[in-house]
Structures are given as C-alpha cells and as structure tokens.
Amino acid sequence: MTATLAESHTEMTEIVLPNDTNTHGRALGGAVLHWMDVCGAIAAMRFANEKVVTASMEHVDFKSPIDLGEVVVVEAYVYGTGTTSIEVNVEVRAENPQQDTERDTTSSFFTFVAVDDDGDPTSVPDLDCPTEAERRLRDAALDDRQTQFERLVERMA
After folding, report:
1. In order of start, what are the domains of the chain with their CATH numbers?
2. Strand partners of residue 104
3. Per UniProt, which keywords does this protein have (predicted)?
4. pTM
C-alpha cells in the first residue's frame, strides 16, 4: 500500500485578526503553532486515510513576524513514514495583499501517528514520490531536518 506526497499536500489560509495578536499587533506564536498543527494533521490524514494524533513537533523557527491583517498561508506535505508514523513538513508564509508581498515566516517538522477507531496505532502507507517535483520536496525536507538535527547536536555539545 502506497500513497504519494502530492496526495498529502495541504494548504490553508488565515487572516491575522485582533484575537490572534499580541500587544505589538503581531500573530501570537501559539496561534501560528495551532494553524501549523491543524494543517499538518490534515496532510497526514489525507495521506493515511486514517485519523491521526500529533506525536511530536520539532524545533520551530519563527523567522519573521506576521502582522495584523496579513494573510497567513500554511503549507504541509508528508515527506516520510514509519510503520504507524507520518513525518510532515509544515511551512508558513505571510502575504500582504495591499503591497503584493510575501515572505517565509515559520517552519517545523511534525510527527503524527495514525490511529484506528479505538485510538490504537494503525499502519500507514509507504510514501511514493513518482514525480521529480515530489522527490525534490521530499529530499529538501530530509536535508532540512538533518541540518536542524546537526545544529541541535552542536548546541548540546
């Protein structure tokens, strides 16, 4: 049983409203993390055709703030699997429709576990990347995750 990276691809949009902001008029980190978790879970569910639960979220990079009124685009796709686990790359960018600009703001790697109706882990398909574009996305995510891991090891040493 296999599923493709493309089948998991998910994109969500939000607009940053006052309830999502801090006292500086910028998106709360918790709001951004919530959107990332939801988008990642949808990608994992689409891939596995099962319910999923969040098992872990790796280092989160907040690269740029997201201001009140900006459009938030959250994009996720599966780049790896285990027996019951699904590895998902989640990236966030902000768009300013008035200025027609866009920038990367946040990224992280999530692990979800597929569960059956009783909440027990259940098997997931193997990842298939039949196109060059899918292979590039998978390889980029694997490289980024490895780099992130190496930086962590350096900080811990």
Report:
1. 2-156 (3.10.129.10)
2. 93
3. Hydrolase
4. 0.94
